[in-house]
Design brief:
heterodimer, A: 308 residues, alpha/beta, Rossmann fold, five-stranded parallel beta sheet, four-stranded parallel beta sheet, globular, B: 181 residues, 8 strands, 30% strand, amino acid binding (chain A)
């Protein structure tokens, strides 16, 4: 039985993830047809609750809901208008009056989706909370690897390198959890100031050397560099960051010959990733966006159908 | 409560004879096999479609193209059910537009599967004609749907279960009538 919510990849077993990927395959078929719509979620309402701006993720979820004929209600709020505790609860109360069956929640504070799950009877999908987790991103990344890596034969023995601001990245945390659970090795790479030692695990290694991280990797994922990190003094100059941690053709020369180049988007061309590499044959950045819709369709289907 | 066998409705030879007759009827109705395509509904409609296509091929020279349809995403009870159905792949490797399509299934009962299949199929394009072939029609329709080709009409009560077993899916070949007791 699928878990009630998707708060964390941790709560989903390998069997759950496999079932999700199989369902996503069917959803991908739907999105290849002329009529990109099925009636599966007719009568269900999906609410998007974005306390932190995100055009892409919200768009992807709304597409996933509408392609299955669900109704969508959207609530966008600056997290500034909400302190914690009661005002969050009040917001949920207001939104809950719309009677959504499932909420897609993004919040700058870690743990908010978990809290909301305690307050409502609706299903909750975490679309990113603080620096803690972004489960659908990790799921679509692993799914994209499974679909696109030449001759894919399972995650065992595969190596994923994630490069960039690991400290502030929920994408890095969720991917490390999911890929190691599926049997892969993960290397996290970034400046020492942005590489929290507690992320080191039996199958997760940390390094400040990008060549070491890329060595033999089957996928190299660049994380978006956010400008404000620079101001906080966590980074040297942009030029130095680019030289030491930019994912380039030279870096990929150390990776597996069929290695995939990944990025959760939106990309800063020629900052964390070389523009030419992002457009190259090994880049699956666009596939990640398309697969994002299929995987989110599968998430909505699995959380909503068969619950009565 | 256990499902107890009540009667054997069709044996191996009877199934083969019924399918042979249906194959001939399909070709007769469509005036040949030229524009024809067969689409099986998961699970047992798929091997039935394969067998009908092979039979048609054996007397018309060429087998019509085959597809398989999973109707889960088109069911009308997804907001009400307690168990999540596993979504299977749909594979219709030809253009449905302008074709004479024969939907194939093992048992016609309420008609809801056929309704869902019509939705799934027409979302792929606009076939010239859609016809419906079933091995067993057991009655109790809940929608205005009927089959064009029927292997055997069987009067049943709602408490009974019709179980079709086919060589490729079940390793055996029969149609059984069972009853909860």
């Amino acid at each position: 039985m699928t878990p009630t919510h998707l708060l964390d990849t941790q709560d989903w077993s390998v069997a759950d993830v496999t079932a999700l990927f199989n369902t996503a395959d069917v959803m991908a078929q739907v999105m290849e047809r002329t009529i990109k719509k099925v009636p599966a979620l007719q009568g269900f309402t999906v609410g998007t609750l974005f306390f932190e701006p995100s055009t892409r993720t919200r768009l992807s979820f709304e597409r996933a809901a509408r392609a299955q004929s669900a109704d969508v209600v959207s609530f966008a709020a600056g997290s500034s208008s909400l302190s914690k505790g009661e005002s969050l609860k009040d917001t949920l109360r207001t939104v809950d009056a719309m009677q959504a069956d499932l909420y897609v929640v993004r919040h700058a504070v870690s743990g908010v989706p978990h809290q909301l799950a305690r307050w409502t009877d609706a299903r909750i999908v975490n679309a990113g909370d603080g620096r803690r987790a972004h489960p659908t991103q990790a799921l679509l990344d692993a799914y994209t690897f499974q679909k696109n890596f030449s001759g894919f034969d399972g995650f065992a023995g595969k190596k994923l390198a994630i490069v960039g601001d690991v400290l502030h990245s929920r994408v890095a945390r969720s991917n490390a959890e999911l890929w190691t659970k599926l049997g892969a090795q993960v290397t996290l790479c970034g400046p020492r100031t942005l590489l929290p030692p507690e992320l080191e695990q039996p199958n997760v290694t940390l390094t400040t050397n990008i060549r070491e991280a890329a060595e033999g990797a089957h996928a190299v994922m660049a994380l978006r560099l956010q400008g404000e990190r620079m101001q906080a003094g966590l980074l040297p100059s942009l030029a130095e960051y680019r030289v030491r941690f930019g994912v380039t053709e030279q870096v990929m020369a150390h990776a597996h010959p069929d290695a995939l180049v990944m990025h959760p988007g939106p990309i800063n061309r020629d900052v964390e990733i070389s523009g030419a590499l992002a457009d190259s044959e090994g880049s699956v950045i666009e596939a990640q966006v398309a697969n994002g819709v299929s995987v989110r369709m599968a998430v909505l289907y699995m959380l909503l159908v068969g619950r009565k | 409560m256990f499902l107890n066998p009540k009667a054997t409705l069709m044996n191996r030879a009877e199934i083969t004879r019924a399918l042979t007759r249906i194959a001939h009827e399909i070709v007769e109705r469509n005036k040949g096999a030229e524009n024809l395509a067969l689409v099986g509904i998961h699970t047992r409609g798929v091997p039935l479609a394969e067998r009908l296509a092979a039979l048609i091929g054996s007397f018309e020279g060429a087998s019509p193209p085959l597809g398989q349809l999973d109707i889960t995403l088109y069911r009308d009870d997804l907001t009400e059910i307690a168990l999540q159905p596993v979504v299977k792949k749909t594979d219709v490797p030809f253009d449905v537009r302008g074709r004479n399509i024969v939907l194939c299934d093992d048992v016609l009962y309420t008609g809801r599967t056929a309704r869902a299949a019509l939705g799934a199929l027409t979302d792929m394009g606009r076939p010239a004609v859609i016809q419906y072939a079933v091995l067993v029609d057991r009655g109790h329709r809940e929608l205005p749907i009927r089959a064009d080709f029927v292997g055997k009409n069987v009067p049943t009560s709602r408490g009974e279960v019709v179980k079709v077993r086919l060589q490729s899916t079940d390793g055996d070949e029969s149609v059984e009538l069972l009853e909860w007791r």
